[in-house]
Design a protein that fits this description.
Length: 140
């Protein structure tokens, strides 16, 4: 009887450990941008493949992710800069779209643009905002 109890106890402990590991993985692997309307994940060398999804959880099932971006309705630039405690390094404006190139201490992947280390790119047209880390690949 005691052997069966020890076996069940070992099984339960193992299951709890596996659950905890998977839970931590899920928390650290979900998109860094919450509540988006459309997500893009960039994989492969030089972000050659773009995977589009409506779910921030799609990232859990991908490997070799080089970056990600999200689309929001409305102007969310100020909110995103504040949320990520980002410093605006420089801006560009073209065709009614303002691009903010920023550095956030909360994001790890970076690119070098014009001698500046960028890891948060926000593009805002007023009616729509896109945010990407380290930058938005493709168009807006």
């Amino acid at each position: 009887m005691r052997g069966a109890f020890m076996t069940i106890k070992a099984f339960i402990v193992t299951a709890v450990v596996i659950f905890c590991v998977l839970f931590v993985y899920a928390l650290t692997s979900v998109s860094v941008f919450p509540d988006g309307e459309r997500y893009e994940y960039y994989t492969g060398t030089s972000s050659e493949e773009i995977i589009v999804s409506r779910s921030p959880y799609k990232k859990l099932f991908l490997s070799d992710i080089k970056g990600e971006s999200v689309r929001y309705t409305g102007d969310r630039a100020e909110e995103l800069i504040s949320r990520f405690r980002a410093k605006i390094l420089f801006t560009e404006e073209a065709a009614g779209v303002v691009n903010y190139y920023c550095y956030s201490p909360l994001l790890k992947n970076t690119v070098l643009i014009g001698g500046k280390t960028v890891n948060l790119h926000i593009a805002c047209s007023g009616s729509e905002t896109a945010a990407g880390t380290p930058v938005i690949f493709g168009g807006f």
